[in-house]
Amino acid sequence: MRQFLVDAFASKPFTGNPACVVEPFDVWPDAAWMQTLAMENNQAETAYLLKTEDPARFGLRWFTPALEIPLCGHATLASAHVLLNELGIQAPVLIFDTMSGQLTVRTLDDGQLELNFPANPPVQIETPAGLAEALGAEVLETWVGNYAVAIVKNETVLRELKPNLAVIERICTEQLERNRGNLMVSAFADPGADYEVVSRFFAPGSGIAEDPVTGSAHCIIAPLFSDKLGKSRIAYFQAYPGRGGALTCEVVGDRVLLRGTAVTVLDGQLRV
Fold first, then answer.
1. Which of 40, 45, 86, 174 is catalytic?
2. Could you tell me the pTM of the whole model?
3. How many CA atoms lie within 13 Å of 145's alpha carbon, on the beta-carbon side?
4. Is residue 169 annotated as part of the catalytic site, yes or no?
5. Rounded Cα distance, 23 and 86, in Å
6. How far apart are CA 178 and CA 35, in angstroms?
7. Which of 45, 51, 71, 98 is least surrounded by Cβ atoms within 10 Å, i.e. has the fewest?
8. Among 215, 241, 124, which Cα is nearest to 176's?
9. What's the CA gap between 226 and 257, in Å, rounded?
């Protein structure tokens, strides 16, 4: 059985967010086995695919090294990239059945892949006690969707953050409803940047200190910044130190369209 390592939301190797993608199964393997392989891979996500009678439709599940999660953007992009570019699936639209419902991915004329995901508009709350101290920066606004979102003063402040992840996980878990101990921190981009919003995502609640590019978190901040900027389509950059990646998000009703590219960096053979 083949397994691929793919850099998602990347235009060249060693950028974006890496994900492992296992070639499609005929039946789901045991969940404990999938979790063990994800821990062995030690990437933010390992994606597992299930064949159906429709050659363009697959079951899709995502595992971090610590747990199965309900939604993952970059590993969905990586999975579509593998199916289309490594395994020879020919389809204008791929359909994925997931814990978050039916997701689709289509290829655009410019070669980008477009993910159609559910929007998760956040609600604004009072900034929890201790959050600014845990981040080491003033928090201008705090919002909550499936993850917490903190907005800071500017891109320089965001890039220099050195947060206390244990405290952030405790605050997010104990004080914020509907989130999983994870925090997206965002700011408007500096003047002259080729993106409009910059973010970092700290995910101790999912067993990840910091995630390089997080599609699911953009389902939260895309509606937020769409309202702030008064437009539906916005260029984003996730500023993981030394890596990071770019994506464009467009809010269409209760959906978010996430657009980006991916690069295969490893094609290997599983012997278990």
1. 45
2. 0.94
3. 18
4. no
5. 10
6. 24
7. 51
8. 124
9. 13
